[in-house]
Amino acid sequence: MRTLAVSRRWATTAPVALLAFLIMAGFARAQEVQLVVSSYGGAYDEVFKEYIVEPFERENPGVRVVLAPYATVTNLAAQRANPVLDVVQLDDFDIIDAANRGLLEVLRPENISRWDDLYDQAFLKGNDGNVYGLTNVFGAWGIAYNTRHVDRPESWRVFWDPAYRNRVAFMDNWIPDMLMAARAFGGDERDMEPAWRAIADISPWVKQFYPSFSAPQPLLESEEVWLASWFDGRTYALQASGVPVDFAIPKEGGILIRGGLGVVKGSRNRELAEKLIDFAMSVEAQRAFAKNFFYGPTNRRVALEGDLAEKVVYGDADLAQLLVPDWAYILTQRSAWTDRWSRATIW
Predict the structure, then answer these.
(1) Which bin fits 274, alpha (ψ -120 to 50), beta or left (φ > 0)?
(2) Predicted TM-score (pTM) above 0.90
C-alpha cells in the first residue's frame, strides 16, 4: 500500500478512479442532497453501506450517500478550491496530516451524539488541539507467527533470532516496523539509531520486505515465512481459513492502527457529514466491522463476547498494550526515516 508507507489502502489507480468519479459527480440529480464519501472499496464498502449508509438515508429522506474511490491527502489538496468530497476516510496519520494542512473541518460535538461514548484514542487531533477526525475501527500491528514452528513471541527481537533466518518478513518502509525495531533495541521515535542498526543487521536474512499488505498471506500459507509483522485482523482471517498462524503483541507493545473519518474543508454539507460520521460510531456498525473484519470497536458501548472479544482490540486493557505514535512529530521526520530505512535494507 504505498510510497513512503503512509496510505495503507493506496493503489496507483486511485487518482485516476477518483478523477473519473469527480467528473461523474457533476451530474447529480438536483432534487437530492448528495453526500459524497471516499471509501476503501470491496467488502469494506458492503458493510459500510449496510450498517451506515442505508440507516442514514432512511433517517434523512432526500439525502443520498455516494461512495467515491479512495482519496489521498494529495487528492484533497488538489480539490481544495472546489471540494466534491464531503467525508474522507483515511488512516490516522493522514487525517492528522490533512488537518494540519487546512484540508479538514473541525468536528463539532453537538452534531455527534456518540461523542462521549468513544475511547480517548478515537479522537484524531491536529497540532492546534482541535478534533478533525473520529476513528471508527481499531486494529493492531504486531507479529503473525506460524504455530508449528514458533512459540508465541515475547519480544520483537524474535525476528533477530538466528533460528529464523530467511523465515521472517517486514513491511517495506512502514513506520510501525521502524518504531518497533527502535523499541526492541532501546530506542524510540526520538532516538531511531537503534532501529537503523538493527534493520541493517537483519536485512541479509529477511525473506521479504514486502510491498503490500496482502503479501504476507501467501508467504504464511506456504510456510516460506514463519514470522511477519502484520495486522491482527488479517492474521485471524487467515487462521480462520485453516492456516496454522496466530497473532501476538510482544512485551514492547504493538502499534494501534486507526481508520478515521473527517469532514472535508469547504463541504457544502458539513452538518450532514458530521451526522454520517456519527452513524459510523454506532454500536450496530462497529459490531458488524468486528464480526466481518476483526476490527475493534471505538465505541465503549459495543459489547463483544467469546472468541471475538479475545481476538479484536477491545477495551482499555487491549488499548493499553498498543502504542499511539506521535504522528505530529513523525510526519516532520518521514522523509529522513524513509531514506534511512532504504539505506539500511540495501546490502
Answers:
(1) alpha
(2) no
